[in-house]
């Protein structure tokens, strides 16, 4: 079975209707380099489906994020969100404060059971997202870095 079919089956098991728009958004996420914006996804999709609107892309990305099919990554210092399919193990992201690139931290350093013990009964943890901000190797090597966070 293909990766697309695996994702569609996962959506079906969660009770989600598979619309043509959702299918092409997933196909575009599979095709593009990692971490496209909603506008980049929309532009890619419009090459074969010119009628799709940016609102439709945003609305479906929101649903796919809420269902755990897509990860939303918030880039620091920008009003930009980028997206990736939530494939494989749960993981987090490293985001460069200088160039804005995001890369995967291939494991999760967060122990939700320990966090749940800390917050006790006042809050039920059902998931988490962690984005780490700093400087990539290329930007760290530059001598004219912006002032680092303190």
From TrEMBL:
Repressor among keywords: yes
Family: Belongs to the Fur family.
One Pfam family hit: FUR
Top-level taxon in the UniProt lineage: Bacteria
Protein name per Swiss-Prot or TrEMBL: Zinc-specific metallo-regulatory protein
Keywords noted in UniProt: DNA-binding, Repressor, Transcription, Transcription regulation, Zinc
